[in-house]
Amino acid sequence: MIGTCLAAAALTVALPLQSFTLAWTHSIEKIRWEEDYRVVGQRLRLVEARVRGHGAGMEPPEGAVLKNGAWHYRPALPDLPRLTLARSGFVADYQMCWDGACRPMRDLIGPDEKAPVVEVFPCETP
After folding, report:
1. Is 80 exceeded by the pLDDT of residue 27?
2. How many CB atoms lie within 10 A of CB 91?
3. What is the pLDDT of residues 28-73, one digit of tens each?
4. What SS3 state is found at 101?
5. How far apart are CA 59 and CA 96, in angstroms?
6. What is the DSSP string of 4-70?
7. How far apart are CA 54 and CA 71, in angstroms?
8. What is the mean pLDDT of residues 16-23?
9. CB contact at 8 A, 36 and 108
10. Are 6 and 12 in contact (CB under 8 A)?
11. Who contacts 126 (Cβ-Cβ below 8 Å, separation ≥6)?
């Protein structure tokens, strides 16, 4: 089965996820941002994005719709082979959400000082 892998340093974690939400808080504006991804073959498809506000370069794009306090939109991006996430102890950690719960990246792949860069990509899972 194709799922989702997280890789940092020498550690790779395979999660049996066909879809997930990546969430974080903007370091300056302190606004939550969420992106929904789906595994499509060996690539990640960004299905929808949401941002709870705007400012500091985070203006909702044309066509975004305000629902329940967040701007919803569908980015016009090609499917991606992987995501590269840079982490720092100076800002809130990324979260991965599935099945109605969010988990800090540190709980999945370790603390940012040991895993400052995390790659997210489709992979075979047991």
Report:
1. no
2. 15
3. 667 888 999 999 999 999 999 998 876 656 677 788 898 988 889 9
4. strand
5. 23
6. EEEEETTEEEEE--SEEEEEEE-TTT--EEEEEEEEETTEEEEEEEEESS--TT-PPPTT-EEETTE
7. 9
8. 96
9. no
10. yes
11. 14, 16
Given the structure tokens 């049996």, which residue do they identify?
Answer: 16
Which token pair is 5? 């892998």
Residue 54 confidence (pLDDT): 67
The whole-angstrom separation of Cα 75 and Cα 60 is 10
Residue with tokens 């840079």: 86
Q: What are 64's two structure tokens?
A: 């975004």
The position carrying tokens 């991006």 is 77
Residues 72, 65 contacting (CB under 8 angstroms): yes
Closest CA to 83 of 117, 48, 47: 117
DSSP 80-99: BS-EEEE--TTSPPPEEEET
Element spanning 106, H or E: helix 105-109
Please provide the size of the chain in residues: 126
Q: Mean pLDDT across the stretch 83-97?
A: 90
